[in-house]
């Protein structure tokens, strides 16, 4: 992609890979179970998961494009600023003010996108958890939002999680957030690399 920060491009390609794997999973469920026509909660939540995943991708793409543009603006600012520097008490020349103004606007928009990413990221994780709960046939799958799912998993397998992280040389002092983050990273990497 042109005009996008490379790190964002890498994450977007991973999200696309996850979405493709999830679509294959949905197709597999349909072919395996061959359910009669009608509404099914698993497909409802799975559809919402894919939609939220696309929302996250859109936000990340917008942030990646903004970051790329900010880099270009910073380079332009450095090239165009006077060699003697800016004198204290004197305003920047108009062309530098214009660059600074655009940089500030993009930075502000990225802050808003970061907050949106937090919200949509949580919604995505909740839909993913509901999909897992329905897929695994858990009792009362509708109560399995992401937080509840992780709490249940950690209650059942705390030693497995700790053992996995310890073998990877991870510091366990971060507690639950660190464990959750590492489990997610592990899940994302495995879903992206699985053939």
Describe the 3D structure.
The structure is a single chain. Helix content is 77%, strand content 0%. The chain is mostly helical. It has a domain at 6-139. The chain is elongated.
Q: How helical, in percent, are the residues?
A: over 70%
Order of helices and strands: HHHHHH
Mean pLDDT, to the nearest integer, reads 80
Percent strand: under 5%
Shape: elongated
Described by strand count, sense and barrel closure, the largest sheet is: none
Task: Spell out the blueprint of helices and strands.
Blueprint: H1 6-33, H2 41-80, H3 94-135, H4 146-156, H5 158-167, H6 175-193
Helix pairs in contact: 1-2, 1-6, 2-3
Which short descriptors sum up this protein?
single chain; 195 residues; mainly alpha; 6 helices; 77% helix; disordered C terminus
Task: Describe the structure in brief.
Helix content is 77%, strand content 0%.
């Amino acid at each position: 992609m042109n005009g996008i920060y490379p790190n964002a491009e890498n994450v977007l390609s991973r999200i696309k890979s996850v979405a493709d794997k999830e679509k294959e999973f949905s197709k597999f469920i349909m072919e395996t179970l061959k359910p009669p026509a009608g509404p099914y909660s698993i497909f409802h939540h799975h559809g919402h998961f894919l939609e939220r995943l696309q929302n996250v991708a859109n936000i990340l793409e917008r942030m990646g494009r903004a970051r790329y543009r900010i880099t270009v603006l910073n380079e332009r600012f450095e090239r165009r600023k006077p060699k003697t520097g800016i004198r204290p008490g004197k305003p920047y020349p108009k062309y530098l003010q214009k660059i600074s103004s655009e940089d500030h606007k993009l930075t502000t928009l990225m802050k808003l996108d970061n907050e949106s990413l937090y919200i949509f990221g949580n919604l995505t994780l909740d839909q993913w958890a509901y999909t897992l709960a329905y897929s695994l046939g858990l009792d009362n799958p509708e109560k399995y939002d992401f937080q509840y799912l992780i709490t249940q998993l950690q209650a059942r397998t705390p030693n497995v999680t700790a053992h996995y992280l310890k073998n990877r040389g991870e510091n366990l002092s971060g507690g639950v957030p660190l464990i959750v983050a590492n489990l997610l990273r592990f899940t994302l990497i495995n879903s992206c690399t699985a053939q």
